[in-house]
Automatic annotation (TrEMBL):
Keywords: Signal. InterPro entries: DUF3035. It comes from the Bacteria. It holds the Pfam family DUF3035. Residues 52-73 are annotated as: Disordered. This is DUF3035 domain-containing protein. The lineage of its organism: Bacteria, Pseudomonadati, Pseudomonadota, Alphaproteobacteria, Rhodobacterales. It comes from Halocynthiibacter halioticoli. Residues 52-66 have a biased composition (Low complexity). Residues 1-20 form the signal peptide.
Length: 170
């Protein structure tokens, strides 16, 4: 009986010791690239290949120039909305001016990163979760999450249509 108690204390001490080996930057979701493979979000899809009306009218290849199948998101969006990309004006600063009318913080990304790091250090979760790599993200940020169905009801009570809202799961 004494050996069983000693073994339990030894396991508990080992778990505490392993959890102390964590880094200074808590990783709540444990999202890490295990290898040197490609970054799947860095690959841009190309347009489908098409046969030109005449092979003799093709432009001369330009090294380093654009390709007919390169993505052109701005022109594609204009065309999808029924416009003409060739006649489109360059973007003005009206949207930026409107959104920054109450002022901005010059180092907002650094400030948010520091605040988030401090929050993650305070809310690292349970010792055994960290020891076995269980994600702590949802528990750590639960106080900040928005109840989507409560918010949906709030907007509907105000008389605002929300036709694209998903139904509440049973």
């Amino acid at each position: 009986m004494r050996n069983v108690g000693s073994f339990g204390v030894l396991c508990f001490c080992a778990a505490i010791g392993l959890s102390a080996c964590s880094s200074d930057n808590p990783q709540l979701m444990n999202l890490q690239n295990p290898g040197n493979g490609p970054e799947e979000f860095g690959v841009l899809p190309t347009k489908p290949l098409e046969t030109p009306p005449s092979y003799t009218s093709l432009p001369t290849p330009t090294p380093g120039g654009t390709n007919r199948v390169d993505p052109t998101p701005r022109a594609d969006a204009i065309a999808a909305l029924g416009g003409n990309a060739a006649r489109a004006r360059p973007a003005t600063g009206d949207l930026v001016n409107y959104t920054t009318r109450f002022g901005t913080t010059s180092n907002i990304r650094g400030q948010l990163a520091a605040e988030d790091l401090e929050w993650r250090k305070k809310n690292q979760g349970r010792v055994l979760y960290r020891a076995f790599g269980v994600p702590q993200y949802f528990e750590a940020y639960e106080k900040m999450s928005l109840d989507q169905y409560q918010e949906l009801q709030r907007w509907r009570r105000r008389g605002i249509d929300t036709p694209a809202a998903p139904p509440k799961p049973n």
